[in-house]
Write a structure and sequence with these properties.
Elements lengths: L1 H9 L20 E5 L12 E6 L5 E5 L6 H8 L4 E5 L2 H18 L11 H14 L4 E4 L13 E4 L11 E5 L7 H17 L4 H9 L1 E5 L4 H9 L52 H12 L3 E9 L3 E4 L11 H19 L4 E4 L10 H5 L14 E7 L17
Parallel strand pairs: 7-8, 7-9, 9-12, 10-11
Antiparallel strand pairs: 1-3, 1-4, 2-3, 5-6, 6-8, 10-12
Length: 402
C-alpha cells in the first residue's frame, strides 16, 4: 500500500508553470555544452556551471568566460567529447523572455500557462485553501528565510479530519532557485488533487486515506532573486562571512553525511555546503516541519532537469536497507510516467549519477529524519523533471500541461 500511494502521488505530474522577470545579469559570451567526458578538467573549476548530469555519464555544462581560466575555457570548447547545445546563453535568454511575455499576453486567465512569482504563488496556495477548506489547509509560515520571507506549507486530505496517526506523504519544491518547473509542477499536482476530489474515484479514495504535506518554497530568497537578478541562480542568498560570494546549496546542507563527497567548502561554488549541517534557516525549517508531521511514508524533493528518479544513497555504493523496495517504486514510477506523456525517466540510485552528500532525499530516509516516525523509514526520492537538455532550466511556457 505504501508503494502504491507514493506512486499515485508521484505520477500526477504535468510539466511547467505573472510578472515578467527583471534580471540584472548578462550572460553575454556564455555557452552551454553537452559532454560525454572531460579529461584533466575538474567540473568544480571556477567558470564551469554544471546544469545537469545524465544516466549515461554525460553532462551539460555552462561555460562562463569571465570566471574561467583560459586553459579551462579552451579545454572545454575544443574538447572532441563536447558539443555546443546553446551557442549564446544571452540570446537564448532573450528568446525565453520573449516567449514568456507572449504567453502572459495570450493566456492571462490560464494560471498554468506561465511561471509565477513568489508573491503570486503564495497567494495562489492561500486562495486554494479558502476555496477548498474541506480538504486544504494553508499554513502561512513554517519559519522565515534568510531574507525574512515566509516559507508556507499546504496540507491536503479528505475524509476524516487530519490527525497525528494519519499516514502522510511529503513534497518539497523549489530548493534550487533556477529550477522553475519544480514549483510549477507542485502547483499542478495540488490543483489536480484538489479539483479531482469527489469527482475522480482514485483521487478521492487516496486523499481519504492519506495526507499530502507540501512545502512550496524550500528556497524562497533564491527563487525571488531569479526574477529580480540572476535567472540562473541556484543557491539561497546567505551572506557568507569572509567571502564576497553569496549563497549556500541547501541540497548539500542536510544532516546526512554533511560536508563529504559531491559538495564544496568553497563559498563561491554552486555546491557550497554551508558552515555546518543545517546551518541554513530554510533547511532547519523544512527539517523541523518534516519531523513535526511524522509519520511520513514517502517524500519527494522536486528538481530539474534530466528526467531522473533518484533514490538513496548518494554518498555510498552500499545499498540502502530498503533498496529492493525503493528500486521497485522508482521503476514503477518511471513506467507510469511514460504512459502519461511518453517521456522516459531513468530510475537509479543517486550514487550512480554522481556522489552527493547532505541532500534532502537521502535525509528523508535517514535515521535523523525518522527517529520519531513510528518505525518507518520514509522512502526518499529526488525527481529531476523535464527536459533532457534542449531547453535546460529555460523550459518554455508552451510545455505547461503537455
Amino acid at each position: 500500500m505504501k508503494e502504491c500511494l507514493l506512486l499515485l502521488l508521484a505520477v500526477l505530474v504535468a510539466c511547467a508553470a505573472a510578472r515578467s522577470p527583471q534580471r540584472t545579469v548578462s550572460y553575454k559570451g556564455e555557452q552551454v555544452l553537452h559532454c560525454s567526458q572531460l579529461s584533466n578538467i575538474s567540473l568544480s573549476q571556477p567558470g564551469l556551471d554544471v546544469w545537469a548530469e545524465f544516466a549515461d555519464g554525460s553532462f551539460d555544462v555552462r561555460v562562463i568566460p569571465v570566471l574561467a581560466e583560459e586553459s579551462v575555457y579552451e579545454g572545454v570548447l575544443t574538447s572532441p567529447h563536447c558539443e555546443v547545445v546553446i551557442d549564446d546563453v544571452e540570446q537564448y535568454m532573450h528568446q525565453f523572455e520573449k516567449e514568456f511575455k507572449k504567453a502572459q499576453a495570450m493566456n492571462d486567465d490560464e494560471w498554468f500557462k506561465a511561471y509565477h512569482t513568489y508573491d503570486e504563488i503564495y497567494a495562489w496556495y492561500s486562495q486554494m485553501a479558502e476555496e477548498h477548506s474541506n480538504i486544504v489547509r494553508f499554513v502561512p509560515s513554517i519559519g522565515r528565510s534568510t531574507e525574512n520571507r515566509q516559507q508556507p506549507a499546504v496540507h491536503i486530505t479528505g475524509g476524516s479530519p487530519s490527525n497525528e496517526t494519519k499516514k502522510r506523504f511529503y513534497f518539497q519544491c523549489q530548493i534550487h532557485a533556477r529550477e522553475w518547473i519544480s514549483g510549477a509542477t507542485c502547483m499542478y499536482v495540488v490543483n489536480y488533487l484538489v479539483t479531482s476530489y469527489g469527482a475522480v474515484t482514485e483521487v478521492t479514495e487516496l486523499l481519504d486515506e492519506v495526507e499530502l504535506v507540501l512545502v512550496p518554497f524550500t528556497n524562497p530568497d533564491g527563487y525571488e532573486y531569479t526574477w529580480n537578478g540572476d535567472r540562473l541562480w541556484r543557491k539561497n542568498r546567505r551572506v557568507n562571512s569572509g567571502s564576497s560570494c553569496r549563497g549556500v546549496d541547501q541540497n548539500r546542507n542536510y544532516n546526512i553525511e554533511w560536508g563529504k563527497s559531491g559538495s564544496s567548502s568553497n563559498p563561491c561554488s554552486d555546491t557550497y555546503h554551508g558552515s555546518a549541517a543545517e546551518s541554513e534557516v530554510e533547511t532547519q525549517n523544512t527539517a523541523s516541519y518534516f519531523k513535526l508531521n511524522e509519520p511520513i511514508l514517502g517524500a519527494i524533493d522536486w528538481h530539474s532537469y534530466s528526467q531522473l528518479i533518484l533514490r538513496p544513497w548518494g554518498f555510498t555504493n552500499t545499498d540502502a536497507k530498503d533498496e529492493v523496495r525503493m528500486r521497485q517504486i522508482g521503476d514503477t514510477m518511471s513506467e507510469l510516467m511514460y504512459t502519461v506523456h511518453g517521456m522516459r525517466y531513468t530510475s537509479q540510485k543517486s550514487i550512480g549519477l554522481y556522489p552527493t552528500s547532505g541532500t534532502a532525499s537521502d535525509w528523508f530516509y535517514s535515521e535523523d529524519a525518522n527517529s520519531g516516525n513510528l518505525g518507518y523509514r520514509a522512502a526518499g526520492f529526488t525527481i529531476e523533471l523535464r527536459d533532457t537538455g534542449r531547453y535546460g532550466f529555460l523550459l518554455p511556457p508552451d510545455q505547461v500541461q503537455t
